[in-house]
Amino acid sequence: MDPVIRVENVTYSYPDSDRPALDGVTLDVARGSFVAVLGSNGSGKSTFAKHLNAILLPAAGRVLVDELDTAKEDDLLAIRRRVGMVFQNPDNQIVANVVEDDVAFAPENMGVEPAEIRRRVDGALKQVGMYDFRLHAPHLLSGGQKQRVAIAGVLAMEPEVLVLDEPTAMLDPKGRREVVSTVEALCRDRGITVILITHHMDEAARADRVIVMDRGRVALDGTPAEVFPQADRLRALDLTVPETTDLILRLNAAGMALPTGALTVEACAAAIGEALA
Amino acid sequence: MKNIEVRGLTHVYSRGTPFEKTAIDSLDLAIQAGMTVGLIGHTGSGKSTLISHLNALLKPTAGTVLLDGEDIFASKAAIRAARFRVGVVFQYPEYQLFEETVFADIAYGPKNLKLDKSEIDRRVRQAAAFVGLDEGYFDRSPLELSGGQKRRTAIAGVLAMEPELLVLDEPTAGLDPAGRADLLEKLFAWKRARNATVLLVTHDMTIAGLCDRLVVMEAGRIVLDGTPAEVFAQSGKLLSIGLDLPPAAHIARLLREKGLDVPAGIYTEDQLYEAVLALWQGKGGVPC
For B127-168, what is each residue's pLDDT tens digit? Predict the structure, then answer.
């Protein structure tokens, strides 16, 4: 594995808290992979995400981005250019009155040449499917559209890694589908490493790898097909089991022999259809 | 007796400007007292505009709303009465907390009702207990609470008004799965204890499946109305207007497309489990 991010035994505590928010987390993230991070509130997911571009610094252990240590102040800009963050509320991330100005904000701050800014802004807006809206006012867009503009703003920095902290929590089902498809395409077609923090099991099911956090530690780590069938374990961590997986586990307990890795409704229906053919 | 009735309701925003938009279009809806009704439809379908009329926050362009047969827009007194009888919890209600303490925030509504001190005290304690908010938080600033506790405080403020009709717009949005299940359980317990009427706006089809009746909106009109089984049986229609299906209903639909004999009204995992097991046994499968 070619790791783009290496997290080594990281511990972090918030002031006034009696237990660490991160408690000895060690993991590598493969370049170009799509990783979903799950966990109930307070499990440490967001704290973990904020360590990846040095918004928070480890109290112990270290985080390396392309071998750059997030604790070294000299490397801070290089790290922030490599790792872009998108947060839950799109309204808190949009700064300009015109979509393309908003997307140009970061490269302008980085001192990129005007012609290059134009190229990057157009490219980023096309990648998220918002190029036709480049002259619109962001506040008149839907939640899903605003969140895609926020993603374009990060893409204009040409990052290696995109970290999204519950980007769909405030969106309706249509907006969720738009954002998740966009993010998935950025990983599959552009090779950008995606780290998606989410409460939605159906979004996590599309990732290459699922990391489940609990009380500041990594509780489960594997492919979706490996993690989701561990129903008892997930419930003990206050998470739900996807309905598809739960159905298959129950049918298997009753004597059928269905593949437990059929996570999407399509795969689940295909597996049941085959067994009944 | 009908608890609330919407008659020929039309609402046009920015009338006479280039931004004119008809959000609600001649809509009729009657809700029986004691029912839990789910209101679904994607963003822009008119759900929020509709619920803003139910306690007279918006005035209709045409049509009206009746509470037990009385027009809520008939007079200033009628409007005021409707605001006390119909409680609306908007999306992300925690952004509306403003008092210095949790107790004062929950007590704000009952105080406006001009209730005496002991009655206000009783209502605040009861509402807090319903949403599972410990009395130890009463003297704290709402700003010091966690997101989940803020949400509970905001909902308790509406429950303390003891509304006959409680309208909730996406009450579980942004909560984790455990928080979602817990809050829903508490809201349903409140509804049962008070025999209130509940209108629940949701995008979550699993939550929609828990309602007695579902109303589906599209472009300012009601396009489907019935029990969850009746509405989810119209899976093609729901998908065509961009809505999700509950996973079980979606799988059932795909199995029917494969020619399997799965009933159309299925929308819960238990129903699908039984149906698949029956088909499997029909093929000679032997359950353990």
Answer: 999 999 999 999 999 988 888 899 999 999 999 999 999 999
- Cβ–Cβ < 8 Å for B147, B164: no
The nearest CA of chain B is from the CA of A185 a distance in Å of: 21
Architecture of domain B1-89+164-228: 3-Layer(aba) Sandwich (3.40)
Q: What is the pLDDT of residues A172-204, one digit of tens each?
A: 888 888 899 999 999 999 999 999 999 999 899
Look at residue B2 in the predicted model and tell me its pLDDT: 58
Ordered by start, the domain boundaries in chain B are 1-89+164-228, 97-162, 246-288
A22-43 tens-digit pLDDT: 999 999 999 999 999 999 988 9
**Token code pair at residue A238:** 């206050």
Q: In what order do the strands lie in the sheet with A34-38?
A: A83-86, A161-165, A193-197, A34-38, A209-214, A217-222
Domains, chain A, in order of start with CATH, read 3-227 (3.40.50.300), 242-277 (no CATH)
Pairing of strands B2-13, B62-67: antiparallel
Q: Which residues of B touch A266 (CB under 8 A)?
A: 254
Gap between the Cα atoms of A272 and A219, Å rounded: 30
Gap between the Cα atoms of A54 and A48, Å rounded: 10
Q: Which residues of B touch A170 (CB under 8 A)?
A: 92, 173-174
Q: Would the CB atoms of B255 and A273 count as touching at under 8 Å?
A: yes
CA atoms within 13 A on the CB side of B140: 13
Q: Which residues of A touch B (CB under 8 A)?
A: 40-41, 88, 142-143, 166, 169-170, 172-175, 199, 238-240, 242-244, 246-247, 250-251, 253-256, 265-266, 268-270, 272-273, 275-276
